Amino acid sequence: MMWRVVHASFPLLSEYWRTIADIHTLGVVSEVPRWRQCISTLSKSALEVALNSYYVRHYFNEENKEAVLKIAEYIQREFLNILETKEWLDENIKEQIKGKANATTYNIGYQKELVNETIMSQLYSNLILDGKSYFKKTLQLRKWQTDYSFSQLRRNEVEIEWDKYLSPTTVNSAY
């Protein structure tokens, strides 16, 4: 158990310790720039929601969202048109397929909570990052994330399911 804690902490330490860890675990020294490592760590941490909020506010193009929504609706409409021409499917199966196609929901762009200042402030209200070292700040962030997760356990209703949606910076499709 302790080894897992130590191993997970190596990327947070200075280059000297990261080099030792790389040599012993990988057999080579990895040369990932520190800035890239920091961005990767932040985007996989509890600050992912804050980073997504910043991205949406400053870089997300609303016109593109509308265009992609129209494309998705067009694809669905054409799928239903093509379905009608398939004679080898019986009517019962066609109705089931239509029901499933019509139940499709689109999560294009981002969830509206990301641009709500009040929600963002409430989410991170208990997060305090003091200290000067990256290591200490990361430990504080991990503790906050654990505390937040535990605070959601006994709630009848989860406030917002942030992990239910893809990140706005991720391009993917799912059903």
UniProtKB/TrEMBL annotation:
Alphabetical list of InterPro entries matching this protein: Peptidase_M13, Peptidase_M13_dom_2, Peptidase_M13_N
GO cellular component: plasma membrane
UniProt-recorded Gene Ontology molecular function terms: metalloendopeptidase activity
Peptidase M13 N-terminal domain: residues covered: 1-110
GO BP of this protein: protein processing
Family assignment from sequence similarity: Belongs to the peptidase M13 family.
Protein name in the entry: Phosphate-regulating neutral endopeptidase
